[in-house]
Amino acid sequence: MKRIVILISGRGSNMKAIARACNAEGWDATVAAVISNRADAEGLAFAAECGIATAVVDHRAYADRAAFDAALAQAIDAHAPDLVLLAGFMRILTAPFVARYAGRLLNIHPSLLPAFGGLHTHRRAIAAGCKVAGATVHFVTPDLDHGPIVAQAAVPVLPGDTEESLAVRVLAREHVLYPLAVRWWIEGQLRVTGGVVEQLRGEPQLLA
Ligand code: GRF
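# 5-O-phosphono-beta-D-ribofuranosylamine complex -> structure
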């Protein structure tokens, strides 16, 4: 049984979607812990209610990123994870941290990468006149919001969309996309060659 640790900073709706899918679909996996850098992250309560171990590693208690990442890695490793997931985790991670979990660290980003890395993705997509937006699950590399793309979900940008209305449409797809990508990883269905991820059963890596 594979062990998953999920890192959050806030609402935790993607974490919930993954925990629910793991149970409902009977994955050969368990969410071993949910760890937040913020004690007030809403998602921690849900995790605790589900009987999932929780921990807080407050970045403000550490002098620099290296010290925080070392403490975070210690908290993660206490749960002996096979897979570590960033799900709305709002800290930039150092290269040594990323290297420690190479090949077993995934992130979800609310844009069609490589467009719109960083913050305010929906606002920027609307301002650019994009007709399509979406979300990306990718392996994490030291470059922020880069790394081999596991799967993407596309949604239309509709006339009159606001940052908020587009975010709602994208988030609904995130809750399908991220559990799917995680299940593929658990099942050993992902192969990365030269920075490109292949789904070994040939399942579509684009959700429309
Ligand atoms: C999501 O939009 C995710 O793509 C981004 O941060 C948001 C987190 O939402 N990385 P939640 O905490 O999972 O509800």
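# post-check
The chain has a mean pLDDT of 97.
The CA atoms of residues 158 and 178 lie 23 Å apart.
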